Model the fold of this input.
Amino acid sequence: MRYSLPTGSDIGNKLKQIARSQLERALAETELADGEKATHQIRKRGKKMRALVRLIRTTDPASESLYQFENAHYRSVNDLLSGSRDATSLYQALVQQLQAEDFPQMAAYLKARIPQATGNELFEARNLLQRGRLHIDDWKVDQLTWKDLRRGYRKSYRRACKALKKARKNEDDQSFHTLRKRVKDQWYHSRLLQHRYPKKIGKRCKSLNTLAGDLGDWRDLRLLCHFLARNSANLDPEVRAELIPLLDRAQQRLQILRKDIDRHCQQLFARKTWRKQKKWQTAVE
Done:
């Protein structure tokens, strides 16, 4: 089933179907021969599951308890598979953004640092995913309404606005990393609601995805620059010879990304009416 709610009633049952579909796919991905691809895909499923329960957490005390439990569960899955995350991000930043063929020694160095996912990690992740699939039968979401989901979306929007304000104020990597997480929440939530509210929410999906990607690229490049600056003295001479040209190109790319990030943020998070319940409801209906 697609990661999107169809219009109509029986919202709770449809959410359960979406959750089961995500877990079925994740379980299939634990069997992939490419451990790195399996890890990446399963972590994406975990993020989708956490976003799904975050959308409904404000409904009542029971939904808050559901969110706390399931969010912790899928965080555990992702943490289990996070061993190669940073090393992979550094290598991918070079390959996808800086034309790795111009820096062959650096590419070889960064690729050699990536630890391979083990069968044990994927086996443990599979066990957690199977347990998560069993949890879904106990979800008390039968009384969910579109009003509940609008409330969740509005809260998600406010959290993104707050993260944006903090990122602009602090101008540090952690604040922009938090902003990226809040933007991805908005993207996932927009995908879930796009068929019900195509004009006001559905049309945001593409720009939110682009913004999340730009924020991810910006973060990965920043991590790469910081890592190389800290470890420059330990690099082999042939690797170090590529360092300055690489950092110059990275800075040019960072400037372009930052302009794009600012432009998309201005477009996506300038609607003050969406922060208030009555005005927001009028805006989407």
